[in-house]
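*** Residues and shapes ***
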Amino acid sequence: MNLTPYDIIIRPIITEKSSRQMENNKYTFEVHKDANKIQIKQAISEIFKVKVDSVHTIKVRSKPKRLGVHLGRSRSWKKAIVTLKPGERIEFFEGANI
């Protein structure tokens, strides 16, 4: 499968925890399920023009959900926590406040 950088990075995750991690140059993204750490690192570098130090990935499992008598599940997805090299910043997140 040939994924472009914009296919790999789906959306940024902006929560209280991820906002605290931004102080330590760690940014959180939802990524494509089939993307590996190397692809994620290259995609972040290309899209945001920054130098990536490390990438940690987490698979978020689906949870059982109910709507009345109907049973179902939420979707499962993959999350990546990207650590940037010292002195690097992603300007996209600078205006995001929780």
Observations:
- The longest strand covers residues 52-60.
- The CA atoms of residues 16 and 98 lie 7 Å apart.
- The mean pLDDT is 93.
